[in-house]
Amino acid sequence: MAEIVLRDVEKFFGDNYVIRKLNLTVAHKEFVVLLGPSGCGKTTTLRAIAGLEEVDTGDILIDGKPVQSLQAGDRDIAFVFQLFALYPHLSAYDNIAFPLRATSENRAEVDKKVRAVAKSLQIEHLLPKRPSALSGGDMQRVAIGRALVRRPKAMLMDEPIGALDAKLREEMRTELKRLHLENDQTTVYVTHDQVEAMSLADRIAIMDQGVLQQVGSPDEVYRQPANLFVAQFVGSPVMNITKAKLQANGAKTKVLLGDGAASFDFPRDLQERMASVTSPDVDLALGIRPEGVLVERQETAGHVRVEAHIIEPLGAYDIVDLKVGQGFLRARTASGFVGRPGDAVWVRLDEGQTHFFDQKSGHAIDVRL
Amino acid sequence: MAHIRLDNVTKQYGGATALRDMSLDIPDGEFFVLLGPTGAGKTTTLRLIAGLDQPTAGSIAIGDEDVRGWSAAERDVALVFQYYSLYPRYTVRQNLAFPLKSRVRSYTAEQIEERVQRAAKTLRITHLLERKTDKLSGGEMQRVSIGRAIVREPKAFLMDEPLSNLDAKLREALRAELKDLQMKLGATFLFVTHDQIEAMSMGDKVGVLNAGRIVQVGTPQQIYNEPRDVFVASFVGSPAMNLIEGELRDGRVSVFSGKVEVPYSASKANGARKVRLGIRSEDVRIGAGEATEARVHDVENHGVEKIVTLRVEEHLFKATIPATVAVNVESAVRFGWNPAKLHCFDAATGTSLAHA
Fold first, then answer.
1. What is the tally of structural domains in chain A?
2. Residue A268: which domain range?
3. pLDDT digit string (tens) for B141-155?
4. Is B146 in the same domain as B293?
5. Single pTM value for the model
6. CB–CB of A313 and B200 under 8 A?
7. How many Cβ atoms from other residues are within 10 Å of residue A31's Cβ?
8. Which of B38, B196, B304 minimises the CB distance to A289?
9. Environment class of A228 (CB within 10 Å of its CB; exposed 0-12, middle 13-18, buried 19+)
10. pLDDT at A261 over 90
């Protein structure tokens, strides 16, 4: 079993600075997801851990030992790719057994291991089949079986279910998670899909342009995003972000949104707390997730009247665009709650779910309400 | 602008039938989404309407005129594809003006300029007009492609997965923009996608297509709340509707080897029959006071909520619970189902008993 440590890792492709001073520790048995848009450096990082890519500076340690000098094959790590790299002329059984053939184990031992892995993946009935006779999901199960059969120290997965259709991805997510629980392998998993990251990870490491943006549990990155990038990359629909200004208003602090055409009342001490952690001339951005925009159909105290625009019925709930000044705030409501575009509704922002950011640096401002 | 109508359209390619006896009626000004998996016949339908292909049987009418034998240009519909086919050496302005400079149309320079400006303003790309298209982001390129369709003021817009190549955040933004655009133009949109969220969020009506046949046409709410068969039930909605093998007898469905029994009265059929009981994850309740015990098989954090996979014997099904409720894998919980939200499908045909 394994702990993986990346220490000040840097990687250049020519002039391209693809990994910038990356520090990350993946604990023994932990499931860490590297999440980010294409080109953010996540796959390069994974390949560096696997030994498929050399790093320019910094250290990669597995169980405390630097592994840069080790070949990929000597790192005792298994790799699963997005495209199931199976041997087409071999049966599923032989594909899974393949990594064991190189070792000097006897047939009975190999057979036992292959069947045990197949059982945990529920693919026992597929063992005699060739890859061409398998569905995409089953091919990937076989590929994962082949990775697991050696009982490697760690599993590295590069978008392993990215090529599957939506329904199958949903199923495979649950399977992968169960598999991790049963096998307890240290896992590093790469994806650009935040839903996958949120649902699989013990911790998520979010990358953008080669820079690690935030590392935290799914709850932490969702509830306390460190910056605007994380705030908008995690969560669907995307968090509302709008320019904001604070203004004293008697017993309240007024928060003016966008061009100032709409404002919401916040607790009085917001301004003082803001002043204590940031400079007064900082350009503020307010962030709030659609579920933090609270909507009423009747005029309600402390709420602001706005007009509903586009309503997206998503079945279990609706996403409603509300016209606030020149911009929009998206709200999540019960299904059918807002009747039709043009209807007047009353909204307020849930203080506990409101985030503030420094517009220029993008950093979150710590004034949790 | 125009109303589009397909009557009993069949399309065969060699021996393979891509579309079977398809009838569709899309009123003027409607946003209609054709939803289905790869190979269902969505793109074939678009190509037939656009005049890029001819049906093997059946008729197609655009604006109440039978368009059999009409060329693609004569049909005057605009196609927008997944891959933006822009001229890379041209500026955005030149790309937008291009369709207006065709010899079959005779527009003056002022008319062209006016239309280009109007389209650019509608799509908020005025600031990009002088830029070459290879200097644009994916979202901007797709806006320009749509702009090129708009300038012609066609009778209808046909869109073939135009958002599929964009990243998740942009897709979300463009979804709302497209819907907004369609409302502003008041135009007929036929939008093809395999993404049920796109279909639900944009469509006035959604037509679900499976293996060359229309399975169900309805508002997003109808498709979601009253699925006609197990295909629609499991294709629309995320997570997919739970479908559990059971037996219907005398107005009661029993599942999990009789461990759970629920009333189901929508079917008048007598006698026992094998069914699949459908329940959406948000209609599964979890709480100490509920009737039946299950094990927690998996917990997925989705930020705003959690999706929990529950296990009863060997059966798995999903429940949506608030993010604030703590549950641990392999712990025991009690669950119940909202009886008003149960669906029942015939095990053999897959058809909803409520529709039968």
1. 2
2. 240-365
3. 888 999 999 898 899
4. no
5. 0.90
6. yes
7. 23
8. B304
9. buried
10. no
